[in-house]
Records
---
Amino acid sequence: MKESELVGVQKTLTPVLKAKALDNRLPDPILGDERAEEVMRRLDPGYDQRRFGTSQMGLVAVVRAKAHDDWARGFLADHLDAVVLHLGCGLDTRVYRIDPPATVDWYDLDYPAVIELRQQFLPPREHHTVIGSSVTDPAWLERVPRGRPVLMIAEGLVPYLTEPDVRRLLTGVVDAFPTGQIQLDTVPVWAWRTSKWDPTLRKYDARFHCGFDDPAALAQWHPRLRYVDEAPLSDSPILMAKAPANVRRAYRLMNLLPGLKRSTRIVRFRF
Ligand SMILES: C[S@@+](CC[C@H](N)C(=O)[O-])C[C@H]1O[C@@H](n2cnc3c(N)ncnc32)[C@H](O)[C@@H]1O
């Protein structure tokens, strides 16, 4: 399997991996993911040679990854027997970054083609299972042990699913486990409605299929689910502290427009 053989939404894993690779080259990185840089270099040795090749404008994706990591570490510190469902994992190296104890069972899920690619670049580890499946096929959940706390992470995934699929996923996970944390990110309705004209998505032949103006309201889908909080993104202190000056300036300007400031929302739920 080659990266060039990925189709549509599967191709969106590359720009986020590239952002993490470039972050690692900052003097004081946000995520500091050396493995992401190695994988990106093997995938595309000249990834930083082209026009805007070293632009750090994608750092906001790194801030998103850091927010998900921080929440995940917090949950795992209190739930050493957790099962982690890392959905739409792409080539993200979260399991190595977080390095959970052996009492945690971690599942990385993405389409079979992505998992095949992943296995060429990222080594196996104990208590780590990869599942090649669409997240919308309910059969994958049967392969995961029940009766333990669950941590579900869906980073950069939900907008590519339809609302009924997101609802089935969330309610299915809540029904399957006694307790847990669900962390995901969403885009607003306007971003979903205009996504077919979005130049970045067009480049990858992908489109958003849902959007939420009030992602906290997803908690209403299940009586046991409650909204906890939201993590800052384009106005986050870590971005403003660590991004190069030109990137900080660009984000400060974008943050003046509330629609752009909240164009991705990272939210956390518990049950
Ligand atoms: C923007 S990438 C994010 C990858 C990874 N979470 C990260 O942040 O680096 C979106 C990922 O979601 C995956 N994806 C989209 N729809 C999916 C589905 N129905 N089932 C499984 N994976 C899906 C894509 O293949 C891709 O790897």
---
Amino acid sequence: MRKAGWLFITLGLAGCSDEGDGAGGSGAAGNTNGSSSNTTSSMQTSTGSTAGGGGAGAAGGGNTGGSGGSGFQLEVHTELDPSPGLILRVNLPIDAARCAALGEGRPCDDLDLDGITDAWENAALDRLRPIQRFDEDESLVNTDLAAVLGDVGRVAPAGDLVHVLIMLGYSKDYGSCGGFSGHNGDSERVGLELQRIERAGAGDVRVKQAYTAAHEGTANDHSRVFSGTDVALLVHDNDPATGEPRWVVFPSSDKHGTYATIDICEGISFVPCFDEDCGPDSVPDASLYDRLPPFVNAGEEAMPLVTDLTGVGFPGDDAWAVKDFCGGLGGTSCSDDVRNKLLPSPF
Ligand SMILES: [Ca+2]
Ligand SMILES: [Ca+2]
Ligand SMILES: [Ca+2]
């Protein structure tokens, strides 16, 4: 939403960029038309089958998904309860060894060797990655018809908990203050800490903590962990593809810092060029501002499932290399490495 009295001035504000190496991004190397990942409908959707590399039955976009053979049907659901925290239920054990012991056609591969069933990882990414609900002035909705969005996920054990870290990738950061500090590639991220549910299925978890990153690692860092009763602040909405609840986050207009609520986004600053606008205010059809990009499961650093990100719309970019993320557009001085969005734990 645009706040009244917003002043348009262009100052030399290095802090406007959410990446330390700032504003580059000329040399666009063509591509862009990866916008096939944008759906024609109001919200981008994808099925879990895009989850690359893992091979084993990815979670389907619907309530049931790939069969591991022998009649096994993967069942994946989400639900909200007042505890608070979104619940994910998968009829496949988290632990690959436990899955394998059950056998009978279940997809129990653990190709990234982290001990978690890869099909469970894919189900978690499929159902827990958030809808991105954009501001009414967002360039990727309104003007950049070649814009590409894609999620690169990692699901990994953290003791008995499970961490889900997702790079929310964009082909471009459009900058603030009229384009100042824009660059090719925009690597943002969110995270979830999942807790197993006692006396429930071996694949059932609850969101214990959530993390939204905004200008992470800069002087203007507004990243935040939501834990305890703050988990109730998270926004959920009905996913039209499944009819079940899904997490919703609010990327700031054109810069894409990720916020859990519109109020948090718009409350961080009233200083021009440091302020942020979120949420589709006063638009006839707010659903046109929702996106749910395709995703890939990157696996683990020691045993990647995916390196090349062409499949998620970003040719030339890599999930694990020590290399700027350029959103499939090439160039220099782009955005922070994808690996830096998948490895450090915010919890
Ligand atoms: Ca695994
Ligand atoms: Ca993993
Ligand atoms: Ca950004």
